[in-house]
Specification:
The chain has 586 residues and is of the alpha/beta class. Helix content is 36%, strand content 15%. The strands form 6 sheets. A 6-stranded mixed sheet has the order 2-1-3-4-5-6. It has a 4-stranded parallel sheet with strand order 15-16-17-18, with helices on one face. A 3-stranded parallel sheet has the order 10-13-14, covered by helices on one side. Helix 15 links the parallel strand 17 and strand 18. The radius of gyration is 24 Å and the shape is globular. It starts with a helix and ends with a helix.
């Protein structure tokens, strides 16, 4: 199909027939559209809808970074909602990029952002609509390279064979080295695809799955061997100095309201706490901060380039940022006259102060979120959530004295060693928080309590442990519903079946790809969306492939055997993780 015919079909027949057509049009303020001649053509692919992808800071950073490179261009593509998928198929139109509306097959490189295991079926949808073979082994010299990056790549094995290569760790530096190689390869045209992939494998942080042979050995775990002289283990990349790292000063302004509709300031990466359940706290080590001067410069540039109503200070725990009081004072001085609010989406009660609460609330209240994680001190000690009940209560009082009337709390159930007494302690703690709030609040404080189901994640001290059973988790949720019935408390419980499948794919191996492919054929799409997720279709796919999902989610892996992800090094030793596991049991 000619490009002119493609554009006509999109404009006249497809977009008028779908909901939210602005998801597929592009043309936003600060969008970058470059000349295609003589460039390395990269499509950044996000396996969820536009509103979710445009809220992903890493996605936006890489988009603008690549477009800063003279010999490269970068365009965006998002997973089409089911109505758009149907219309593309009906009209024979391939999935296309937003900037130039080029079919995916026209690109040299398609880079998927993997931030959530339950988006994997959307990757198959996007490749299928792009007329690109699902598996790397089935692609020819004329096909684009399909790559992946993001948090899920710390165990990419369930979907590894989809990708020609995978970036392990942070992408700002390694993507430039990869594009340099591809540019040189296109210019020379001398080397075949397989030879070129072997050269890419020598770049630190690049994992080429086809260069590693995997064998399942029963009770002896998994054996992963390099083919030939491919590097082993594959070591992650990370940016050492955030002050000199690329950060976009003129980010795209979405035309459809993003899930997180705000200007994002990443204050630091990594974490100083070391909670034993937290994968992000491990894989984003070490702790690195941006200076308050750099953050203020970025905030002012964002306001000048696209305006904003809210500045969000992003990190795993923003109240651990060393010069936070200074930063807040400077931001408020700049933001308040413009009626721009400030939010802290991640905070700890033991480091939250009334001063912080007042500064953040200076323009308008946004939201405060705290995470006690467990109801008892014993269980908080097990997971290394180093916070006491007294600190929880005092932090809550500080937020209320600062004027906050709505506070959100995160808890988890199914944590290692948990008993029903620990679960029962969650509503007891919430009750004591309500009583404490009455003592300092002028009006009624509203509480939002979100309770998730613990999923053991790779590269954490709990990676060897089994997930709690579905029956047990449902019983614990039933208890919480019965006990948590205050009128000013909104209780949100996460889907047990969805988290169970998340555990399967986070702890899984390469035998899961046929299950994923079968689930897609059965109609699974947007599995992370409650209204789209189907437990029965997924169980049917497992039965078809003769695999038991309990093996991955409900099996305790042996401590003395390799794991599916043992060939991926995130910079934290297995010895340290075992020590932390043993400490948790004490």
């Amino acid at each position: 199909m000619k490009q002119s015919e493609l554009l006509e079909k999109i404009e006249l027949e497809i977009l008028p027939a779908v909901k939210k057509p602005a998801r597929y049009t592009g043309g936003e303020w600060n969008m970058v559209k470059k000349d295609w001649q003589g460039k390395v053509h990269t499509a950044l692919a996000f396996p969820d809808v536009y509103e979710v992808g445009m809220s992903n800071l890493g996605f936006i950073i890489l988009y603008h970074l690549i477009n800063e490179i003279p010999y490269a261009l970068c365009e965006r593509v998002f997973a089409p909602w089911t109505d758009m998928e149907q219309k593309l198929l009906e009209h024979g139109v391939p999935l296309y990029s937003l900037e130039s509306r080029r079919p995916l097959r026209d690109f040299d490189l398609i880079g998927f952002s993997l931030s959530y295991e339950m988006s994997y079926t959307n990757i198959l949808t996007m490749l299928s609509l792009g007329k690109i073979p699902w598996r790397a082994a089935h692609r020819t010299e004329s096909d684009p390279f399909v790559i992946a990056g993001g948090g899920c790549t710390c165990n990419p094995e369930p979907i590894a064979e989809v990708f020609d290569f995978i970036v392990i760790g942070e992408g700002e530096e390694v993507i430039v080295e990869i594009l340099d190689k591809i540019h040189e390869w296109k210019e020379s045209g001398a080397r075949k695809r397989g030879q070129f992939l072997r050269e890419l494998a020598d770049i630190k942080g690049v994992y080429v799955p086809s260069l590693h042979r995997v064998e399942y050995r029963g009770d002896q775990g998994w054996r992963t061997e390099p083919i030939g002289d491919a590097p082993m283990p594959v070591r992650r990349r990370y940016v050492r100095n955030l002050n000199t790292a690329f950060y976009p000063l003129q980010p795209i302004l979405p035309t459809v309201q993003a899930v997180h509709d705000r200007a994002n300031l990443e204050v630091f990466r990594g974490c100083i706490r070391g909670c034993r359940f937290c994968q992000a706290g491990i894989i984003y080590r070490p702790h690195r901060e941006r200076s308050s001067e750099e953050l203020l410069r970025i905030a002012k540039a964002h306001y000048e380039s696209c305006g904003m109503e809210e500045i969000s200070l992003l990190s795993l725990n923003t109240t651990d940022y060393t010069p936070l009081p200074q930063l807040l004072q400077e931001l408020v001085e700049f933001a308040a006259p413009q009626e721009v609010s400030i939010s802290l989406p991640s905070t700890r009660l033991d480091s939250f102060t009334e001063f912080i609460g007042r500064e953040v609330r200076c323009v308008r209240p946004t939201g405060l979120t705290f995470a006690p994680e467990a109801g008892t001190q014993r269980l908080r000690d097990v997971v290394k959530k180093q916070i006491t009940e007294e600190e929880i209560i005092e932090g809550l009082k500080a937020s209320i004295r600062a004027g906050w009337q709505r506070v959100k709390f995160y808890f988890m159930i199914g944590l290692p060693t948990e008993t029903m007494d620990d679960v029962d302690a969650i509503p007891e703690l919430v009750g004591r928080m309500i009583d404490a709030a009455r003592g300092v609040a002028k009006g009624r404080v509203k509480f939002s309590v979100s309770v998730s189901n613990f999923v053991p994640k790779p590269h954490t001290p709990f990676q060897w442990l089994a997930m709690d059973s579905k029956e047990s988790l449902l019983e614990k949720q039933k208890l919480l519903r019965r006990l948590m019935r205050w009128k000013n408390v909104e209780l949100k419980l996460h889907d047990v079946n969805l988290n169970y499948l998340e555990a399967v794919f986070s702890r899984g191996d390469r035998r899961l790809l046929p299950v994923l492919e079968e689930a897609w054929r059965l109609g699974c799409r947007f599995d992370g969306w409650g209204e789209k997720f189907s437990t029965e279709l997924w169980l049917q796919a497992f039965r078809h492939c003769d695999l038991d999902p309990d093996f991955y989610a409900r099996t305790e892996y042996p401590l003395d055997a390799p794991l599916p992800w043992s060939h991926i090094s995130v910079g934290v030793s297995e010895k340290f993780l075992k020590q932390e596991l043993f400490r948790s049991r004490k």
